[in-house]
Automatic annotation (TrEMBL):
Keyword Electron transport: yes
Keyword Zinc in annotation: no
InterPro entries hit by this protein: Cyt_c-like_dom, Cyt_c-like_dom_sf, Cyt_C_IC
Annotated signal peptide: 1-21
Domain of life: Bacteria
Keywords: Electron transport, Heme, Iron, Metal-binding, Signal, Transport
Protein name as it appears in the record: Cytochrome c
Pfam families: Cytochrome_CBB3
PROSITE patterns documented for this protein: CYTC
The Cytochrome c domain, residue ranges: 27-115
Amino acid sequence: MRKIEILTWILFLSLSSNLSALDANDKSVIRGSIVFRTYCALCHGENADGKGRLAEGKVPPPANLTKTFLNDAQKEEIIRKGGMGVNRSPFMPPWKDELSNEQIKDVISYINFISKTK
């Protein structure tokens, strides 16, 4: 079963049962998946493979987050400052004014969960 399917089941079960049974990291991953689907999936894709609906024609293309080698501090910096703020893609917007600290930490937890390099 793919990680996305597992996450979907976790999300479904968490909504239909008691969230207190999940540990803090599980909750962070679930919240992060919601943040990702709301803010990131249009470019990075539903599977975080960089093949979202808005990815076509972008040079460089959105990152394939299933194969990231960045540490959490680097991910946080890119999310907060956007691509231009860290000398990367100008298409990646800065999210520091849109996302809370918790949302940023949660989306990083989700990226780590789906990343094949972790």
